[in-house]
Amino acid sequence: MSAPDPRKRDMLISKSLSYLLRHGAEKEKLPIDAQGWVALDAVLRNNRVRTHKATFDDIERIVSQNEKQRFRLKTQDGTWYICANQGHTLKAVVPDLVLLDKSTMPSQVYHGTYAQKLPSIEGSGLSRMARNHIHLTSNAPWSKSGIRASCNTLIYIDTHKCMDDGLVFWRSANGVILCEGDKEGVILPRYFSKIEKVEKKRHEADNESGGSQKSA
User: Fold this and answer.
1) How many domains does the chain have?
2) pTM of the prediction?
3) Between the CA of residue 124 and those of 37, 148, 153, 163, what are the distances in Å?
């Protein structure tokens, strides 16, 4: 019998962490504070993590090696805690965020999606759905890709126009740009500055180099 693939195991542990820290802590009866921190011992005892026989070393490795830096660890009074940097649907959680203004906003900010979703988005806008924020990325060196590698369409946002109309933008600890949208949780189509089709994964290469997107 072949040994289990350690990369697959890490992926499964990471998925369990994402669920617990972003969405399921309350349902799983995990104590979580207002910034989204949970005691690591409690996470390791949870069945979703325990089923993978995850250890502290596993969690530390996954946190440090995650390309998008989804999680953070800290120690306080001898206790280790873990949190998700963004992506929450838990309404009571407000992670550590930095407010962006026109002087600190990157020059290009965009949302990754799929061509088949464009008719709906062009009609009603970008919605945060069940999450607390709409996730955006940018051409800034500090910006982590907040979009899936399989996305083939980028929607560029006129953030200055958004700000003029009262929309607020934040930067997460892992460099994702977040926006709650309007009172309905939407960035309306009138704030789209450009929609661009891209080759698969091209946006990842551009983001890593800090370069701007070229029109397809």
Assistant:
1) 2
2) 0.73
3) 34, 22, 17, 19
